[in-house]
Every structure is written in C-alpha cells, then in structure tokens.
Request: fold
Amino acid sequence: MIYLIRHGQTEWNEKKIFRGHKDIPLSKEGKEQAYKTGKYLARSGINIIYSSPLKRAHETSLSISEECGCDVNILNDLTDIHFGDWEGKSLRWVKENDSYNYNLYRFHPEKITFPNGESLNHRYERALDGFYSLVEQKTGTWAASLNLAIVTHRVTLKLILLGVLELSPSSFWKIQIDTCSISEVEFTDNGYLVRRLNSTCHFEDQGSLNYDF
Reply:
C-alpha cells in the first residue's frame, strides 16, 4: 500500500497565505495533527517514509516515523510547487493584485504559470516522474508486507492523484486534500488503484478541517 499524506497545519494555512518553497514550520495545531496521524498509522505496517525536505512535511513525517518505527528519507522531488511572487502573499492580496493569474488558477489551472514561479503542468510532470520512479524502484522486489508512506504538499498530492487517475491538471479543483489527510493507492498487476481519498477520520473529534489551502 502507498499512503499519501499531506503535512499538518501551519499558521500560513490558517491565514490563507501561499507557501510554496517558503520553509514554514508546523503550528501547534499542526503538530497535534501530525501526532494523531502517526498514532492512527501506527498499526498500518508502514516500512519506509519518504518526505519533502520542507519543515512542515519533514516534521509531520518524523511524527509518523516515531509511531511506525521506520526511517524517513528526504526526497527533493516531493517539494511543493514554486508559487513565485505569490509566496508569502495572502489569498486576498492575490485576488486584488493579480486577478488575471488568480482567475487562470481557479478556472483554467492547466494554463497557469505563477509569476516568476512554476507552471502547474510542469509540476504535474515533476510530481509524477518522482512518484513513479520511487514506486518502480520497489516493484521489482515488491513484497506484500511492504507499505510506503509519502509525506508532501497539497499541490503535489493533488497532481500525483490526478496522474494515477489518468486525469490532467485541468481537474485540479476536483480533488480536495486537507491538512494531515491520508489517501491510499495500491499498486496492483493492473496498475494503480485509489482505495481512499482525503481521509480525516483520525480527527473526528475536531469536526471538518476545511484546510484545502
């Protein structure tokens, strides 16, 4: 099984500030989310964890590692998209000051190239190349007991899942990925099977998170 896990909440998630390559740590709530995610996954049989190098993902992966008793491996291909000039800017600021690109992002995401940053199409290719190369390294000797966890970012996860489902970046907004949510993908003889998407059942006491930002 492949567990796809988004990092926990940061203050910039709550304030709706674009993060991208900015290295923002988890907030107090984000650390609690990461702890609960680790506790929930403790019996999943995860053997190895791959994480984005950014603090918010790495801190989350370490919480999961502590509960699952396995190593964390940093993989640069799992980093967030480069939002360019939007990084450090609030959603409100972007709407008011870069409405043209914001509307592309919202309604035609496959056409967006973030100012002085990366295009969603390029990140789609980069995310899938990293995901498939990682999984294919394991498939030659894939054991039934091998469970892999990938801890990364909202955009990266959405694009990986779109690729697995054979959808394009134009469908970016048809998937929701909340902070510290868990999605599951199984590698089978017939290809990839999405078994679970954006599960936050380990936060039932917190109600709906609604942090797909």
In short: The chain has a mean pLDDT of 90. Residues 2-206 form a domain with the Rossmann fold fold (CATH 3.40.50.1240). The chain is about 35% helix and 15% strand.
